[in-house]
Design goal:
- By secondary structure, the chain is mostly helical.
- Helices cover 54% and strands 8% of the residues.
- It contains 6 helices and 7 strands.
- It has a 3-stranded antiparallel β-sheet, with no helix packed on it. It has a two-stranded antiparallel sheet with strand order 4-5.
- The termini are far apart.
- It comes from Thalassobellus suaedae.
- Keywords: Lyase.
- This is Pectate lyase.
- GO terms for molecular function: lyase activity.
């Protein structure tokens, strides 16, 4: 029985392998179609002024970054705006489909809009302005358990979670992709911010100006 079972297992593996091989013959077209469909959905349905949060309800009635977000807000770190921007650029490089580059441009515009006066970025951006953002901190943010960075409004920039550095990296990629000079001012401002924020010993604090 053990030998028979081994042969049966090998037979199943062979059948599965043949099915996978057949699927691979059409996988490129399927991948491209699915990738474009997903991108189109994100750009046309999920995006807020070119930016993104992390999670959405199916009907878009609610949305979240690291915490629940207003509909006027986008998130910077993780799977939010910067991550989507990198993804769009990767898709453009792989396919040369201009739609992906245009999606990356929209994400970059949202990133630049959210850049602080000093040159860095906070975790989130609220297109409704500081009054709306402060209201978020005073209601949703202050109830963030063990998320002290969201419990008070400081108006600062952060290196935590790779926010400012990854935003800078994304803008650098946008600039280098087509040598578009329109990205140079925000990029230079971000690099200068990183340099002036460095401590004499070579390191960086997570928030600038120092708060939490």
């Amino acid at each position: 029985m053990k030998i028979a079972n081994h042969y049966l297992l090998l037979f199943i593996i062979l059948i599965v392998g043949l099915k996978l091989e057949a699927q691979e013959k059409t996988s490129k077209e399927q991948v491209l179609e699915t990738m474009f469909k997903a991108t189109e959905f994100m750009v046309e349905k999920a995006s807020t002024n070119g930016g993104y949060v992390w999670y959405y309800m199916p009907d878009f009635s609610r949305q979240w970054g690291e915490m629940e977000a207003y509909k006027t807000m986008i998130w910077m770190q993780g799977a939010g705006t910067i991550g989507m921007g990198h993804l769009f650029l990767d898709a453009y490089r792989a396919t040369k489909n201009e739609y992906y580059y245009e999606a990356a441009q929209k994400a970059a515009a949202a990133v630049i809009w959210g850049q602080s006066h000093e040159g860095g970025w906070n975790y989130m951006v609220d297109f409704a302005g500081d009054r709306s953002l402060k209201q978020w901190y005073n209601t949703i943010g202050k109830n963030g358990w063990r998320l002290e960075e969201f419990q008070h409004y400081y108006g600062n920039s952060t290196f935590d979670d790779d926010v400012t550095t990854d935003a800078t990296r994304f803008l650098l990629r946008m600039y280098l992709e087509k040598m578009d000079p329109s990205y140079k001012p925000a990029l230079d401002k971000a690099i200068n911010f990183i340099l002036i924020s460095q401590y004499p010993n070579g390191g960086w604090y997570s928030k600038v100006p120092f708060n939490v």
